[in-house]
């Protein structure tokens, strides 16, 4: 089953967890720490209101090191120098920031489906931007989500697999709501570690370029 089909079949709680997982994996491009979104996961597990933790997460990034890093990456790209590296990092950070800004205050109704779908697209775009491998197959993110997966670069392929796996876990009624959510969080944490390593390598590379 394709990613698009899994999203179409997911219930509101599954959609909220899927969108949150996409955003959580992209936290490294915002300069946020690993626990930035943990309170939202907790509220989701408790079926509670996540409005307060959401506001705190946004405030933690506003004007902090993550926001300064994003602006610096955009400036690098605009100035040339760290050329494609800086521009790609800045665009990836902007995508992740928009994901955070668009989080619905309540994970119910049509808004959560639209947000989860947008997060799926944005997370794949972030990984495509940061992938050091040459683009393969020439297919769009939309085509990948629909199941046309030939020629994908490694980072994008891994992100697509995680998105599919998380929706499968959340749709497994046998695991129970808490069990599926815990497993989804574990999968997302693995992806976040991978992307944090990628972000760190790119930052070191830009630093070396600027010293030359």
Q: How far is the first residue's CA from the last residue's CA? A: 49 Å
Percentage of residues in DSSP E strands: under 5%
Count of individual helical segments: 11
Question: What's the count of strands?
Answer: 0
Extract low-pLDDT stretches.
73-83
Run of helices and strands:
HHHHHHHHHHH
What would the principal axes of the Cα set say about the shape?
globular
Radius of gyration: 17 Å
Characterize the largest beta sheet: strand count, sense, and whether it forms a barrel.
Answer: none
Q: Roughly what percent helix?
A: over 70%
Structural class: mainly alpha
What's the average pLDDT?
85
Care to describe what's here?
75% of the residues lie in helices and 0% in strands. With 212 residues, it is mainly α.
């Amino acid at each position: 089953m394709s990613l698009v089909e899994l999203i179409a079949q997911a219930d509101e709680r599954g959609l909220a967890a899927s969108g949150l997982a996409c955003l959580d994996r992209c936290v490294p491009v915002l300069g946020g720490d690993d626990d930035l979104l943990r309170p939202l996961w907790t509220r989701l597990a408790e079926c509670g209101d996540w409005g307060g933790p959401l506001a705190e997460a946004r405030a933690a990034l506003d004007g902090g090191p993550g926001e300064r890093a994003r602006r610096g990456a955009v400036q690098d790209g605009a100035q040339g120098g760290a050329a494609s590296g800086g521009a790609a990092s800045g665009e990836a950070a902007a995508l992740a920031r928009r994901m955070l800004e668009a989080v619905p205050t309540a994970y119910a109704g049509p808004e959560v489906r639209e947000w989860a779908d947008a997060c799926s697209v944005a997370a794949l775009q972030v990984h495509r931007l940061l992938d050091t491998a040459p683009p393969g197959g020439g297919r769009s993110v939309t085509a990948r989500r629909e199941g046309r997966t030939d020629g994908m670069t490694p980072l994008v392929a891994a992100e697509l697999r995680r998105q599919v796996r998380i929706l499968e876990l959340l749709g497994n009624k046998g695991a129970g709501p808490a069990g599926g959510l815990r497993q989804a969080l574990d999968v997302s944490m693995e992806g976040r570690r991978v992307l944090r390593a990628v972000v760190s390598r790119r930052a070191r590379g830009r630093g070396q370029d600027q010293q030359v």
